[in-house]
Amino acid sequence: MRYKIFLMLGLFFIGSILQSQTSYSNENENTKILKEILKEIEQLKKGQDKMSKELATLKTAQPSQNKAAGAAKGAKKNVPIGNSIVLGKADAPVTIVKWTDFQWPYCAKSVSLVDDILEKYPNDVKVVVKNFPLSFHKQARKAAKYALAADRQGKYKEMYHMIMENFRKLKANEDLPLEYARELGLDINKFKQDAADPYFEELIKKESLELAQNFERKSVPKFLIAGQEPSGRTVEAWSALIDAELKNKK
Question: I need a surface site. Which of 99, 100, 124, 143 has the fewest CB within 10 A?
Answer without folding.
Answer: 124
